[in-house]
Design goal:
255 residues; Arc Repressor Mutant, subunit A; Alpha-Beta Plaits; four-stranded antiparallel β-sheet; 45% helix; 24% strand
């Protein structure tokens, strides 16, 4: 799990300075609209909306964009789309299992984008259920290392709330729980005065495939192309790249 988490954390950090920020903004705003529509506009009774708004603010989405998304989702402003959640399953290069979460108002467009990304990057789509069994949905909270915060302090704060484990990712701590315990864990951190960067219900692979530099380069190319689609919200893959492999790839990107 650690390799996957380090990769996910790296992607999260890179997103802050990503040239594709406008696409990121659009996806975050879409999440807010859907959260309002499914759980209502009341923050106190809609933890999914709280997380969606918090995530948007952490990524510097303008307040006007957030307010308009809230109004569209609640029907106070026109222009809301009828978004549908779709999960695609497939295999990337090297047999890496891949799950693609889409939120779209055009199923044909989403399916086409996902299919093209797999085809162009040495992968293929698979039948529903053929890949998803390799993953478990978990609650993942990323806590930045600030001040004298320790792993034991974080663990003490979340243990009674249902957390399974706390992992040291280097620049942050990762709190893992069952997806159903995500809200209690997040609330426990807030009660303890501990700030967190993100709190998400994510698909975590049960088993991982170790990849070398070439394998990592190929699977990340597929993931980047998938994430470039406006309809794709999240991509999960069961590969593990060592710190040395990721460092070599980052050095290549810097050239």
């Amino acid at each position: 799990m650690s390799g996957h988490s380090k990769w996910a954390t790296t992607k999260h950090q890179k997103a802050v300075v990503d040239a594709k920020r406008s696409k990121l903004f659009a996806k975050l705003v879409k999440n807010i609209e859907v959260a309002v529509r499914t759980g209502g506009p009341d923050m106190a009774g809609n933890p999914t909306l709280v997380d969606a708004v918090q995530k948007a603010k952490k990524q510097s989405v303008p307040n006007d964009n957030i307010d308009r998304a809230l109004k569209r989702g609640s029907g106070q402003e026109a222009g809301a789309a009828d978004y549908q959640s779709i999960m695609y399953e497939g295999y990337g290069p090297g047999g890496i299992a891949v799950l693609v979460e889409c939120l779209t108002d055009n199923r044909n467009r989403a399916a086409s984008d996902v299919r093209v990304a797999f085809t162009r990057n040495g992968g293929n789509l698979a039948d529903p259920g053929s890949v998803s069994y390799l993953f478990h949905r978990k609650g993942i909270v990323i806590v930045p290392k600030e001040g004298d915060l320790t792993e034991d302090t974080v663990l003490d704060a979340v243990l009674d709330a249902g957390a399974d484990e706390v992992n040291d990712l280097g620049e942050a701590f990762e709190v893992v729980s069952e997806a159903t315990d995500l809200v209690p864990v997040r609330t426990a951190l807030q009660a303890a005065g501990i700030e967190y960067d993100s709190a998400d219900s994510l698909f975590v692979p049960a088993l991982q495939v170790q990849v070398d530099v070439n394998g990592a380069r190929r699977i990340l190319r597929l993931i980047d192309m998938l994430e470039d689609s406006d309809d794709v919200q999240n991509v999960f893959a069961n590969f593990d790249a060592s710190d040395d492999v990721m460092a070599e790839l980052e050095a290549e990107d810097a050239e």
